[in-house]
Amino acid sequence: MTKIYRLxxxxxxxxxxxxxxxxxxxxxxxxxxxxxxxxxxxxxxLIPKLASHIISSGGKRxxxxxxxxxxxxxxxxxxxxxxxxxxxxxxxxxxxLHDDVVDSxxxxxxxxxxxxxxxxESSILVGDYLFSRAFQLMVSDGSIKVLKVLSDTSAIxxxxxxxxLLTKNDLDTSExxxxxxVEAKTAALFSAACKVGGIVAxxxxxxxxxLESYGKNLGIAFQLIDDALDYSAxxxxxxxxxxxxxxxxxxxxxxxxxxRRGDSEExxxxxxxxxxxKQNQNDFDHxxxxxxxxxxxxxxxxxxxxxxxxxxxxxxxxxNDRIKEIxxxxxxYCIKRDK
Amino acid sequence: MTKIYRLxxxxxxxxxxxxxxxxxxxxxxxxxxxxxxxxxxxxxxLIPKLASHIISSGGKRxxxxxxxxxxxxxxxxxxxxxxxxxxxxxxxxxxxLHDDVVDSxxxxxxxxxxxxxxxxESSILVGDYLFSRAFQLMVSDGSIKVLKVLSDTSAIxxxxxxxxLLTKNDLDTSExxxxxxVEAKTAALFSAACKVGGIVAxxxxxxxxxLESYGKNLGIAFQLIDDALDYSAxxxxxxxxxxxxxxxxxxxxxxxxxxRRGDSEExxxxxxxxxxxKQNQNDFDHxxxxxxxxxxxxxxxxxxxxxxxxxxxxxxxxxNDRIKEIxxxxxxYCIKRDK
Lengths: 339, 339
Hints:
Two copies of one chain form a homodimer.
Chain A: H1 17-24, H2 26-40, H3 46-55, H4 62-73, H5 80-102, E1 107-108, E2 111-112, H6 114-118, H7 120-141, H8 144-167, H9 175-200, H10 205-232, H11 235-238, H12 244-248, H13 253-261, H14 264-275, H15 283-293, H16 296-314, H17 322-336
Antiparallel strand pairs in A: 1-2
Helix pairs in contact in A: 1-17, 2-5, 3-7, 4-5, 4-9, 5-7, 5-8, 5-9, 8-9, 9-10, 10-16, 10-17, 13-16, 16-17
């Protein structure tokens, strides 16, 4: 059996809550990985090949870990969360496959993206397959409540992706509109991943909503940091090409802030590079310079912290325990990450 | 409200079972259309625009009609079949959107395909959205049985699409392998559309299986005729470009028969055009000539009739009534169609 994920003791950073969590829930995550491998087995060999390429390529497994951790926070003692965590990861992976086609991305997590290796057609269709598999897993769980949360979430994600496509190359996109996109395309799945943990534990609605709110705000913070990293990280750490958002004309918060705070000459620069898509070799560095001038990266991180604070407060109603502590530390970790 | 479908009295061909069925189940189909319109409403305006382009572009509405007709054949008197018929059409539409991207098709039902008008990215993402919407509709129906049938079907369709991609440009594809593809990519949804009618009517498993078998065999016959039409129809009737399969190097039954029955010179021609993808202006006409020489089209239709006969026999256990008669006539209609 191909190994998808194993905690590498040499990799554990001190005080890295993701590693600490991975250590605590290792048995559950191993079971999740087993399900993922089993469910992608197929006599059409391209399916397991392509699926394992993207699933095994060193993703953080953040979303299924959130499902497991949320269920644990709710003292859940069954095993339904395992299958549903796999299902959340399948939805995420299907989205990534389609994202890379839509964005014409060549790199994902430091390796060639699936569409680069097998072509766009394969990525589209295997994405559809994984998405269907996600639904099969939910159906085999049998809870209409969970099915409702995850099918609603899938529709919201797709709507967010379409919405993002419309904001591309559109410098009139407001910060609020962009936040709508972020809530839909990223935060909705974080939110659902956490809520599902509360549903399987049969927790009262207030608790489920708190988990939902934690996931949503963590998801927004996570995406804002992602957007900041596209202008500030080093490519080797990022695992994808730095400046990809810029090249594709994506209008993210760092751009929105720099554009709105800039003078008319600077705005012309943003128009030329992101709307007319005329980019020279030094334009990306100039963009970063303008962002630094207007503190766009700093303030994007500040915005992320705002949502991070909301995420932490959402967990206040849960009694203090080790998992809650880790989930709270995870917020700061997601904000401080450099990849 | 945009009109999606209305039976045009001038369009009714005498003895056309599809028109006769459309007339009988017009109230139900109107309700299906209302659901389709309502469910594609979205503040992200590209979604309803693109969705209505493909949904309103004069498709036969064959699959949702099969759900309604199957439920009627089972004397079902509720209204669950309406929503599920819409759900079946959503799955079909999502598949078409992705198909057109994968096949780089420019025409669909005689008009520009959605990817030609709005780009591949939009078609991929709105396809994902419609697919998610289909699941939301199933979930709102609330039956795990139906959810199982339709989520299994979605996975089978996606698997069939990937499988088809692998048979592209591969003249070693056997007739049986190609039939596997057809069963998955086309017949599975016909089959599920019919079975769902039996499930909502709470019919015994034998009846459900008979409907499943009717749909499956009708679906295979339907696809084989589609494949024959790509080499024999006139473009204006076909609503897509004649010869598209040839241009794309798709290995369908007419090709498989002509290739296997041909001499070494003819096989070199098929290798050059479909494997090496070197096609000259007259190659398509030459391909059609070779097919006529070896009776490939005639025998593809013969194969289709074989499955058509199985479809008709599958309905034998149902008492003779008007709907059964129409469903049986529909088989011959699908085989004799010229578009």
